[in-house]
TrEMBL record:
This is Endonuclease III domain-containing protein. It comes from Candidatus Syntrophosphaera thermopropionivorans. The keyword Nuclease applies. Keywords: Endonuclease, Hydrolase, Nuclease.
Length: 228
């Protein structure tokens, strides 16, 4: 029988098992924002290659990026797939930042959170996961980032089997844990780390710290899926 666990207990088990994750892997707020836009559908290694190319071209900030055309940005970020679309998304964001805040990120993040989030969600190509990553990791705002890994893990653990959209998942999580930027930051990072290496599509339950509490494991342990 599966033991029940709160979301906070899940976090604590992951923290003990994996250690603090110290996210986001960007040096500056500008780099975190560029990385959050580039990482859609690709691994972080591919983003690093693109950031290195941008640095080699002397591009470190959103203001410097804004001075380039979409056509000039695209080849520099080729490693991130859909690079033409991503170049356009970067320019959409830099345009927003220039017109509304004259490239002043502190001024942008000083906006009322709900208003800022809803304005950012209107930008073409920026979905809730990207916007929330920017708000949490670049702006230190209390916004929990939901992604496919989060949904996979919490569903497998048996928290719910209801089909929920992004906002419903976000609400489901945030009403069960304290509103704390550090916790939101590290919890998301813990989930991503576990799901990249252990709770993969074909999970490696044999090395997971959550087996005792996992509905998926308890239901499949007699016939485990072979991990590759
Ligand atoms: S026990 Fe297996 S399915 Fe459950 S969370 Fe761990 S890796 Fe995922």
């Amino acid at each position: 029988m599966t033991e029940t666990l709160s979301l906070l207990e899940v976090y604590n088990i992951l923290l003990n098992f994996q250690g603090p994750q110290h996210w986001w892997p960007g040096e500056t707020q500008d780099e975190i924002i560029i990385g959050a836009i580039l990482t859609q559908n690709v691994s972080w290694n591919n983003v690093v290659k693109a950031l290195n190319n941008l640095h080699s071209a002397g591009i470190y900030t959103l203001k410097e990026l804004d001075a380039l055309s979409v056509e000039a940005i695209a080849p520099l970020i080729r490693s991130t797939l859909y690079y033409n679309q991503k170049a356009l998304k970067l320019k959409t964001f830099t345009n927003f930042l220039r017109e509304r805040y004259q490239f002043d990120l502190q001024q942008m993040f000083a906006e009322d959170l709900k208003t800022l989030r809803s304005e950012m969600l209107k930008l073409k190509g920026l979905g809730p996961e990207t916007v929330d990553s920017i708000l949490l990791y670049a702006g230190s705002k209390p916004v929990f980032v939901v992604d496919a890994y989060t949904i996979r893990l919490l569903t497998r653990l048996g928290f719910t089997d209801k089909k929920m959209n992004y906002s419903q998942w976000q609400e489901f999580i945030t009403e069960r844990i304290p509103q704390d930027v550090e916790l939101y930051n590290d919890f998301h990072a813990q989930i991503v780390n576990l799901c990249k290496d252990i709770c993969r599509n074909k999970p490696r339950c044999e090395i997971c710290p959550l087996t005792l509490y996992c509905t998926y494991y308890q239901q499949n342990k007699e016939n485990p899926v072979t991990s590759s």
